[in-house]
Amino acid sequence: MTRTRKSLAVAFLLPALVLLGALVVYPIGYSLVRSFYDKAGDSFIGFANYGELFTDSNILTAIKNNAIWLVAAPAVATALGLIFAVLTERIRWGTAFKLLIFMPMAISMLASGIIFRLVYEQDPDRGIANAITVGVHDTFSKSSAFPKAHPGPRSPLKPEEGGFITKGTVSVGEPVTLPLVGVAPDTMPDDAKRAASAKTDPGKVTGTAWQDFTIGGGGRPDTVDPKELGYPGIRIEAVKDGKVVASTKAAADGTFALPKSADGAQLRYPAANFRAPYNGVDWLGPNLVTPAIIGSYIWMWAGFAMVLIAAGLAGVPRELLEAARVDGANEWQVFRRVTVPLLAPVLGVVLVTLMINVLKIFDLVFVIAPGSVKDDANVLALELYTSAFTDKDSGVASAIAIFLLLLVIPVMLLNVRRLRREARR
Question: Which UniProt keywords are present, listed alphabetically (predicted)?
Answer without folding.
Answer: Cell membrane, Membrane, Transmembrane, Transmembrane helix, Transport
